[in-house]
Amino acid sequence: MTPSTSLSSTASEASPLLPLEPKPSAQNDRRVIRHILVFVTILQMAYSFTAVSMLYVIRQMTCEEHYKTSENAGESAYHPSVDRCNIGEVESASATAITALGTVTTVFAVVNLFYARWTIETYSFRASLIQQACWPVVRLVCQMIAILIGRRWGVLIMCASQALSGLGGPQGYQLVANSYASSLVTSSEETAVFGQLQGCVMIGTALGYVAGGWAGTNITVSSPFQAATALTLLSIAYAVVMIRNEEKSNVSDVPHGDDQDTKNAQNSNWLSPLKVFMPRNVVDQDGKERKYTGLLITGIGIFIGVLATGFNPILLQIYATSAFSFLSEQNGYMMALNSSFRAVFLSFCFPRLVHTGRAWYARKRSSPTGAQIATAPTLNMPIDVVDFDVPQQGAGVYEEPCQPMEAEPGVHFDLVYLCISMLLDTTFTGSIALLRKPWQMYLVVGLLPLAAGSAPVSKGIITEMCEPSQKVDALSAMAILETVGFLCTTTLTGWLFAIFAENGRSYMTFVVEACIGMCAVLCLSLARFPPRGSGQPPNR
């Protein structure tokens, strides 16, 4: 390979024949990741600043509309309590309005994922992050106008403004941040980095919930929206100044595959990420070709899991307001408790749990697989395109051995961890139906973070199951799957809550969620990684 090395040292950086460009040092990469973590924290805090207040504002506008209509004009006299909105009709109408808001948000969040992926391929990571933070400013201005108008039109404007999430929103910027961070670390470090990013999201969420809930209760209902606008502008300035500008050509290095795979991925249609979940043929150590469906089963299990518990952050606030008369500030403290515990767990406990669990699982499997390890060098071959002399089209059949896809035996622990985490999440969710005191809400909300590792570990599992050249597509497919699942759970759970609330049995919503969650656990227990030493057929 000496001639190839010589050519690489003399070729210019703009040369398209260069398969891999020199990357910055690991220290610079770590610095970039730290800046991404700070950016994610600030921007997520801006998003969460209005999360509690938005639900409270919609409830108040729905309540105003209920009492100001002709048939309900004199009804308020018969409800002299502190919270005149705490009646079945208003709670049901509020749940319907919040469901509509969530549906609009989720539909355009799916659009945002495709748009974010397109900006990554067309421009750069840095440009995509900045763009994802610009459009929320316009959305916040529209929402402040909606608060001034109020009542029915205020709710409609609030819901319509969420359409701007298609150009900039949490799903899009998190996809960009995950993809950027993934390009700066090795495969074995990806799951831990995903957990740290999710932890920073939770830190921003906790700070936003506390500050936004306090501001909405003690200042004005529009003050959280004003503060969120300022924080969003701050995140834009931070990204412009601190995050390294990535050249467009470097973005194609993210999949870590060959140039042809990258080119095909960029030219494919926007639905191409979902092809990651399609069953595919793999070749095991014995040379036998078999159908692998692990990605499909894992994707179905993750979708059912999101369907079961994805609406919980919003549903907990609605239920606490309805059952325990929580105000905006109390909801803010409750969700801040949940998010701060999640942040601590994901930032410090989760990476250590994954590392320790993988090491234990690798030791457990090392003894019975000694014979297989002894024969592993037959498959331990260079996997970069520069290390092969691939014949040109029509020059014969490519007969090199298949590329093994398994990174390390310990990674199988991730599936065990995902099942346990999903089971805990389901158990805690179902227990909410048994709560009768306000302090019990805080207790369960404080325990839910113990199941917070499901999202980052599922991303790590998907990226390990797929080929290295499909990592960006895999992350995009995961984000699409979670967003569509959230859309479905928003519609389903909101509809169920509205029905149960009219009958005074809103707690039954959590029982239904727990039943769905158990289906997710059963499905994920059937998922498997590709067989050890397996790879793609050479002529695929």
TrEMBL record:
Gene Ontology CC entries for this record: membrane
Origin superkingdom: Eukaryota
Extent of Low complexity compositional bias: 1-20
Localisation per UniProt entry: Membrane
Membrane disposition: Multi-pass membrane protein
Keyword Membrane: yes
Keyword terms of this UniProt record: Membrane, Transmembrane, Transmembrane helix
Chain intervals for the UniProt region annotation (Disordered): 1-23
GO molecular function: transmembrane transporter activity
Transcription in keyword set: no
Transmembrane segments: 36-58, 97-116, 295-320, 332-354, 441-462, 474-501, 507-527
Protein name: Uncharacterized protein
Protein species of origin: Kwoniella shandongensis
